[in-house]
Specification:
Chain lengths: ~450, ~450
C-alpha cells in the first residue's frame, strides 16, 4: 500500500470519527409520489463551465426542472461562473500577495453566491419553487482553516424540511461558516465536496455531479479513443483514479463519498435536458455511478488505466541503513509540503548501506534537492541523483484482490514494446509503474488493450 | 410647504418612532489618545467610483490609515466597484425580467461584499488592523422589503467593541439581513444610508461621505463657475438641495442624518491622502459639513440654488370645485407611482369651476395623462392640457424663515431677463419657480448672483 493511499485511508478514518453528520450508507426513502414512482432525494452539482453564462444557467434550470417533474426532491450545489473565481483570486493577489485568508474567503465566496441567486431566479421563471442558500444560512459549519476549510457539521433540518416540502434548494458550493461566524471556503474543487457532504447530511439517494465530461472512462480518451465509459466504479477504485490523474472528481469529495456511502453519479451537463428520461432510473442514464463495491455485480479484474506525467525521481546513494533513516529523509520533505510517492529501497553491496529512490512531481524536484542538501549531515548519503521526464502508469481494479498475476501480464506486455520499467509499487487494488514519459501513450494503450478494456 | 416636503417630514417622524437605535444628536466621546488629541469615532463612506479598481482601493486604504494614525476610531462603509452593480443587475434582468427580490438581493449584494474584503486586505497590508463585516454579521437588521429594504435596527455592540479596540470595521454598504434571515439590499444609493445609520448606531462623531465631488456647492458649478463650496449646510437645507437635484447625497440618507443628528461631511476621495492633515479638525478640511442649524454661526438668507430639468406641466381645465376633487385627481396618480409637484389651483370665472395645474417629471407625462383620461368621469374636467420642456429652479435658505421679501428679489431679477414664470411654490426654507427649460442656465446664474453667492 503506497504512502499516499495509506494517508487517505487514515484520513478517512479520522473523518469518520469527527463528522457528526449522517454516517454509513445512504438511506433510501421509499415515499411514493403521484406518478406512482418512489420519490428520490437527489443532490445535483454543477461546475463553473456548466454555469458559465446566463444561457447555460438556463440549461441547468432545465436539468433541475426535469428531476423535479419526475417527482424527485432536489438540492442543487453550484460553483461560480467560469472565470469568476480566477478574477476574484487575482484581485486578492494584486491587492495583497500575503493576504488574510478570512478576507480572501469573503471575496472569493461571492462567486458562488451570485450563481446561486441567478439559478434560483431561472428556476422560478420556469415555474419551479426554489430558493438560494449561502453556507452561513444552512448553516454548513466548517473549521477555522480559512481558504481550505474542512466541513465539521451540517445542520440539515431546515434544508430537509424545505426540500421535502417541494422547494428546490440552490446551494452556493465551496463555502460554509467557521466557528468565528465568518465565511470559510473549502479550497479549490470544494464544490464537489460541498455536494457530497450535503448529500450525506440530507440523506440523499444520489449525488449527481454534472461536469464537462459524461462520466469516468477506463482511461483518458484523448490517448486511447477506444476507452469505454464505465457504468459503475467502486469508491476505492475511483479514489485511485482521481488521485492518479483522472481529473473528473476531486480526491477529497470521493473520500467523503466513500466514508458516508454517498452514491455519486458523474454525468454531462451539456446533454439536452429534454432528451433525458429521468423516471427510468439511473441505470439507463449516461454517466458513471460511483458506489459501494457491493452494488457492482460483475466485477472486472482491471477497471481502468490512469497516468500522471511530470514525475521526477530522486535517488540517494549509499545511505547508512539504520533505524530512523526514512524519517530523516522524508520528514524534512513533508515539512516543506513536498509530496513523495513510489518509494523504493534497495540494499547496496555490503548490506550496511542502502539506496533510497522515490518520486516527486517535476515541479518540486529542485526544492526537494535543496531540502535534502540542507539535511545532508543528518541523512549522511554519499550521492544525490535526480531524473525528470518520467510518467507513472497505474492499473486499477478491485478484482485484483482475488486475482493473482495481474501485474505480471503488464510487465510482459510492456517488455514486448521495449518499455523500460524504472520502479513498481503495488497496493491491494492497483499497481503503478514508473517509465520514461515519452512512452506514456504507448504504455496506456498497450495496457488498455491487454486487460480487455477496449470497446 | 410642498407635498413632497410634507411627505418627507411625516416620514421622518415615523422613522424617529420606529427606529429603536440611538436617537438625537451624536455624543462626542472625549477620550484622549497618545497624541493628546481627543479620540473621535468616525464613519468613512466610499462610493463606487472611489473603489473602482485595485489602485483606487489602495488610495481609499491610505485615507483610512490617515484617520487611524490621527488616533481616530474608524468604521468604513463601501459600495461595489463601479460598474459591478450594473453588471449584476443586468444578469438578474436577463435571467428573469420579473424576478424574486430576495434572489436579486443575493446576487447584487455580492458587489459590496467583494469590496469590503479587498479593502480589509489593503488595510492589513498597510499595517492597519481591519476586518470586513457583511450586513448579516453585524447584524444590520432590515424589514422584509427586499430590493428596497428599510433599516430597522443595528445591533452595534460587537462593532463598537471591535472599533474601540482599534480595529477598523470595513462594512459592506447597501445591505442588511431581513427577518427571514436573508440578505436584503436597501435599494440604489443605499450605501449612503448604511453609512449614516451605522454612524448613528455606533454614536459616531461624524460620518464622512467620500465622493467624486469635494462638497456641496451653492449651485451646479457646470452652470455657474463662480459657485462656491459651502463649509456648512443645515440638514433641512441639504434635504431641499438633495431632493431638488444636487445629486451629492441620497435624500434618504440626509433624512436619516437629520433624524439622528448625524454630522455628515461630504468630501472628495480623489484628494491625495498624504496632503490632508486630519489632526487639524474638520473645519480646515476641504468639504461640506451637513449639520444641525445651531452649528452654523453665520446663517445666510439664501444658501443655494438648485434646479431640475425635464419637468412637465399638466392642466385640467374647468373642474367642478367640490370637496374631494384633489383626492379624485391625485389619488389615481399616486396609485400609479407618479410623483406630483408644484400644484396650483386657480378659480375660474364663475367660481363653480376651477383649473388644476401641477408638474410631473417629463418621463411620467404620458402615463399621467392616460391615468387622468381613465379617471375622467370621476373628476369631470372639460379639457386636459400638457406642456413639456420645463425646469424648476429652487432658491434655498434656512434664513428665509426670518427674512421677508426674499422671493420678490428673484421675481424682479428674472423679469429683468425676460424669463417668464409659469408657477411658484413656497415652503418655509425655499421657494421654487417653474420656467421654460431653455432659460435654466440663465436663471440659475441670475439668481446665484442676485443673492450674493458668487465667489
Amino acid at each position: 500500500m503506497s504512502s499516499v493511499r495509506r494517508f487517505i485511508l487514515q484520513h478517512s478514518r479520522i473523518l469518520a470519527k469527527q463528522r457528526p453528520f449522517a454516517q454509513g450508507t445512504a438511506l433510501s426513502v421509499f415515499v411514493f409520489n403521484f406518478t406512482g414512482k418512489p420519490v428520490a432525494r437527489i443532490v445535483m452539482k454543477f461546475g463553473g463551465t456548466s454555469v458559465a453564462d446566463i444561457d447555460r444557467i438556463r440549461n441547468v434550470a432545465a436539468h433541475v426542472k426535469r428531476e423535479v417533474e419526475a417527482g424527485n426532491e432536489v438540492a442543487v450545489v453550484v460553483s461560480a461562473m467560469a472565470g469568476k473565481t480566477n478574477e476574484l483570486v487575482s484581485w486578492t493577489r494584486e491587492i495583497a500577495p500575503m493576504h488574510d485568508a478570512r478576507e480572501y474567503d469573503v471575496v472569493v465566496s461571492s462567486g458562488e453566491q451570485v450563481t446561486s441567486g441567478l439559478l434560483a431566479m431561472a428556476l422560478q421563471t420556469e415555474g419551479v419553487d426554489a430558493r438560494s442558500w449561502q453556507g452561513w444560512q444552512i448553516p454548513l459549519k466548517t473549521d477555522n482553516a480559512h481558504g481550505a476549510a474542512r466541513i465539521m457539521d451540517i445542520d440539515a433540518e431546515l434544508l430537509i424540511s424545505r426540500i421535502s416540502g417541494g422547494q428546490v434548494a440552490v446551494i452556493a458550493g465551496f463555502q460554509g461558516i467557521g466557528p468565528d461566524n465568518r465565511v470559510a471556503t473549502l479550497g479549490r474543487g470544494g464544490s464537489d465536496t460541498s455536494a457530497v457532504a450535503i448529500a450525506a447530511a440530507i440523506k440523499a439517494d444520489r449525488c449527481d455531479i454534472y461536469t464537462d465530461v459524461d462520466g469516468v472512462y477506463t482511461t483518458d480518451p484523448r490517448i486511447e479513443p477506444r476507452a469505454r465509459r464505465m457504468d459503475r466504479i467502486s469508491f476505492e477504485e475511483m479514489l485511485e483514479m482521481a488521485s492518479l490523474g483522472a481529473k473528473v472528481l476531486q480526491v477529497r469529495s470521493v473520500e467523503m463519498a466513500m466514508v458516508h456511502g454517498v452514491r455519486t453519479f458523474v454525468r454531462s451537463s451539456f446533454d439536452d435536458p429534454a432528451s433525458i428520461n429521468s423516471q427510468s432510473g439511473t441505470d439507463e442514464l449516461a454517466g458513471t455511478l460511483i458506489c459501494d463495491e457491493d452494488e457492482i455485480v460483475e466485477q472486472e479484474v482491471v477497471t481502468g488505466i490512469a497516468y500522471t506525467k511530470d514525475e521526477a525521481q530522486i535517488s540517494l546513494r549509499r545511505v547508512p541503513d539504520r533505524p530512523g533513516i526514512s524519517a530523516a529523509i522524508f520528514g524534512p520533505l513533508a515539512d516543506n509540503h513536498i509530496n513523495v510517492d513510489m518509494i523504493v529501497q534497495s540494499v547496496s553491496e555490503d548490506g550496511s548501506k542502502t539506496d533510497m529512490t522515490f518520486t516527486v512531481s517535476e515541479g518540486d524536484v529542485n526544492k526537494a534537492k535543496q531540502v535534502l542538501e540542507e539535511a545532508r549531515s543528518g541523512i549522511n548519503y554519499e550521492i544525490i541523483q535526480s531524473d525528470t521526464g518520467l510518467a507513472k502508469i497505474s492499473v486499477i481494479g478491485i478484482g485484483m484482490r482475488s486475482h493473482a498475476g495481474v501485474a505480471s501480464t503488464a510487465f510482459a506486455a510492456l517488455a514486448e514494446k521495449n518499455i523500460n520499467i524504472r520502479a513498481i509499487t503495488t497496493s491491494e487494488i492497483k499497481f503503478s509503474i514508473l517509465i520514461d514519459s515519452d512512452y506514456t501513450e504507448l504504455a496506456v494503450r498497450t495496457l488498455h488493450s491487454v486487460y480487455g478494456l477496449n470497446q
